[in-house]
Amino acid sequence: MKKVFTFFAFMLLMFFVVACSGDSSENPDTSETTDSDSTEDSGSEISDSWQPEQTIEFVAPAGAGGGWDTTARMAAQVFNETGIIEQDIGVENQPGGGGAVAWADIHKQDGSPYNLFVSSPPLLLVPLNGQSEFGHEDFTPLSNIIADYGAFAVRADAPWDDLNDLFEDMKEDPSSISVVGASSPGSMDHIQFVKIAKAAGVDPTKIKYVSDQDGGALTSLLNGSVDVYSTGVAETVEQVKAGEIKVLGITAEERLEGEVLSTFPTAIEQGIDETFVNWRGFFGPPNMDPEAVNYYEQKFKELSDSEEFAEIRANYGWDEQYMNSEEYKKFLDEEKESIASLLEELGLSE
After folding, report:
1. What pLDDT, on the 0 to 100 scale, is given for residue 206?
2. Radius of gyration (Cα) for the chain, nearest Å?
3. For residue 162, what are the CA distances in angstroms to 189, 247, 291?
4. Which pTM does this prediction carry?
5. Percent of the chain having pLDDT more than 90?
6. For the chain, how far is it from start to end, CA to CA, in angstroms?
7. Are 72 and 91 in contact (CB under 8 A)?
8. Less Cβ around it within 10 Å: N or C end of the chain?
9. CATH for 56-147+278-346, among 3.40.50.1100, 3.30.230.10, 3.40.50.620, 3.40.190.150?
């Protein structure tokens, strides 16, 4: 009897051990599933943790009609029409100082996720030539979205038919040929022309650049007051269609697509081994919340990938050039070093 009792006791003990072992083997799986779900939920919360609760303002640091203004308005339009951003977006023009007036105002909006601005190479150039105390390091880079390019145009009856014709005359007497642009000396329209001309063998320090920031640059070209117009490719299309001007060259690596744009030769195909990219993207005030930065990174990527914005790029001759915040900052730091050496050569750096 004692042996039977011992046997049953032993069997009961084994059953208990096996049952406990089965429970413990299931718990790790449950724990892993819970941790995985928790991680996924956490990632979702990070991406959705900040949402705009009031109207967002896009600032174009210049007057209506230019590249900054067009980019801000087209981005706001697509955001609103597609619902990529559901909150209302307004666009405000703040001209003055080649962008410096707007930058100074936005810098005061420390940490605000509702005051964004669009910018391009002048954000590097203007501070370097001493016309603004604020540069790209003083703001929060969010995303770059496009690449635009420069164009060099002359009147339809001008004696030059390509860039080499123009630069040969400029090599002999650079100051005899005037170049007009809408930006200040040492800023974009000036520097894009100088960069290409220098690569062609023209002395960059002797180029006669005329700054017209009041919207009269094209008029000056058409009435014969100046010889060459340095501008963006989109600003030349209508006048080329009208037969008023001809574009001698553009600063892109390859020809652009479009009925008129595709007729513009690049400097590279004319044997001048240089380009100039007018990158354009969005920034916020200093000290923005990382969650708000993450929100805008995602939204600008959706904008860049959308069919609606692709159509707008094609209409204006823009190329896609998306960069997130970290990529943008690294790019800007490198661009600043390159531009600083050219401004120093021109005697325009502080």
Report:
1. 95
2. 29
3. 19, 8, 50
4. 0.79
5. 76
6. 105
7. yes
8. N
9. 3.40.190.150
**Contact residues for 103 (Cβ-Cβ < 8 A; gap 6+):** 61, 117, 123, 132, 134, 138, 139
């553009």: which residue's tokens?
250
Which is nearest to 185 in space by CA: 204, 169, 162?
A: 204
Token readout for 212 is 């017209």
Ordered by start, the domain boundaries in the chain are: 56-147+278-346, 149-277
Considering Cα of 175, then 265, then 156, then 181, what sign does the dihedral take?
negative
The pLDDT of residue 48 is 60
Within this chain, domains 56-147+278-346 and 149-277 share the same CATH topology: yes
Taking each helix axis as running N to C, give the angle between helix 325-346 and helix 188-199, from 0 to 180 degrees, rounded to the nearest 10: 70
What CATH topology corresponds to 149-277?
D-Maltodextrin-Binding Protein; domain 2 (3.40.190)
Chain segment 196-245, per-residue pLDDT in tens: 999 999 999 999 999 997 889 999 999 999 999 999 998 999 999 999 99
List of the chain residues with pLDDT < 70? 1-48
Angle in degrees, CA 210, 154, 272, rounded to 5: 90
Determine whether 327 is exposed, middle or buried from the number of CB atoms within 10 Å of its CB (0-12, 13-18, 19+): middle
**Residue 72 and residue 281: Cα distance in Å, rounded?**
9
Backbone phi, then psi, for 135, in 5-degree steps?
A: -125, -170
**Which pair of tokens denotes residue 274?**
């240089």
